[in-house]
UniProtKB/TrEMBL annotation:
GO terms for cellular component: cytosol. Signal peptide: none annotated. The keyword Heme does not apply. GO terms for molecular function: aminopeptidase activity; metallopeptidase activity. The chain crosses the membrane at residues 20-41. Pfam families: Peptidase_M90. This is DgsA anti-repressor MtfA. The keyword Phosphoprotein does not apply. InterPro entries: MetalloPept_cat_dom_sf (IPR024079), MtfA_fam (IPR010384), MtfA_N (IPR042252). Keywords: Membrane, Transmembrane, Transmembrane helix.
Length: 288
């Protein structure tokens, strides 16, 4: 009798261990297969992007978010949003909602941040990254707004804007940000300039497909600009202001300003350079 009970207990324990081992085995197998599939798909997308110069897809969301009704009027006044089709408008609104969720806005020197400020800056970031899959930049989680020019402890200079990757912060003079918005055809925008710095830095540090395309295309653009005649023509036409020639980071920031504000002029005078910028940002909306 005791022997039978002991045998049954052993069988029960063996059965329990077998079930547990099977469950663990299933989870391990699923995990290994998932990892393998991820890297295979990642490799295939890299091949696709190098051939087609764009991600396999950009927009995919499990649930599209909508902005509160109080913020909708700001959205409707945005010229880029208004130019989009119905589906893309939903994507733009969703990205703006998510950006507002993720970013901490901070006012300095007594400046009170309101919805208008948040929306103007958020919509500009969303526009610049609208062709990129990863639009929530890893190295940007705080936006500091000053009433006007401010003293930068980091650079020990008087600035209108700066990007600090260590603090993951973007600092802007609201006066100069607004000035750029009021003159949208002069190829000069503080917001576009500083946000481009954040995108550029993010592309250097990350390996997502959009970052790879941005950085790889930037290297191609650098090689193209190695030709003396191209550089000379750029300088002579004065399509870029002198500050662009400070270094390669300022060059691309000023170039994106011109691309966003005067795309037709850039495309007419320098179609190859226009193409490189469109490819870097996967921004084809001026061509629709």
């Amino acid at each position: 009798m005791n022997f039978s009970i002991f045998t049954l207990i052993q069988l029960d324990e063996s059965s329990g261990n077998s079930v547990l081992q099977n469950v663990i085995g299933v989870f391990v197998t699923v995990g290994v297969v998932s990892i393998c599939m991820y890297y295979v798909l990642r490799y295939l997308e890299t091949v696709y992007s190098r051939r087609n110069k764009k991600p396999y897809f950009v927009h995919f969301y499990f649930k599209i978010k909508k902005l509160p009704e109080t913020l909708t009027p700001f959205l409707l006044k945005n010229s880029f949003y208004s130019s989009l089709d119905k589906q893309r408008k939903r994507y733009f609104e969703h990205r703006t909602f998510r950006f507002l969720q993720e970013i901490n806005f901070v006012g300095r020197e007594g400046l009170v941040i309101d919805d208008f400020m948040r929306m103007q800056i958020s919509m500009m970031v969303v526009q610049l990254t609208f062709g990129m899959r990863e639009y929530l930049l890893e190295y940007l989680n705080t936006i500091v707004i000053y009433p006007t020019s401010f003293y930068s402890i980091l650079n020990q200079t008087q600035n209108n804007g700066e990007f600090n990757p260590r603090s993951k912060a973007l600092a802007l003079s609201w006066e100069h940000f607004q000035r750029g918005n009021q003159h949208k055809d002069d190829g000069k925008s503080l917001g576009i300039h500083e946000i481009t710095h954040a995108i550029h830095y993010n592309s250097i540090k990350n390996t997502d497909i959009s970052s790879e395309i941005f950085y790889d295309t930037f290297l191609m653009l650098e090689e193209y600009l190695g030709a003396q005649e191209i550089r000379q023509k750029l300088v002579e036409t004065r399509i870029l202001r002198e500050y662009a020639y400070t270094d390669k980071f300022e060059f691309i920031a000023v170039l994106v300003e011109v691309f966003m504000e005067t795309p037709l002029e850039l495309k007419k005078k320098f179609p190859e350079i226009y193409g490189y910028v469109a490819q870097m940002l996967n921004f084809r909306y001026f061509e629709d």
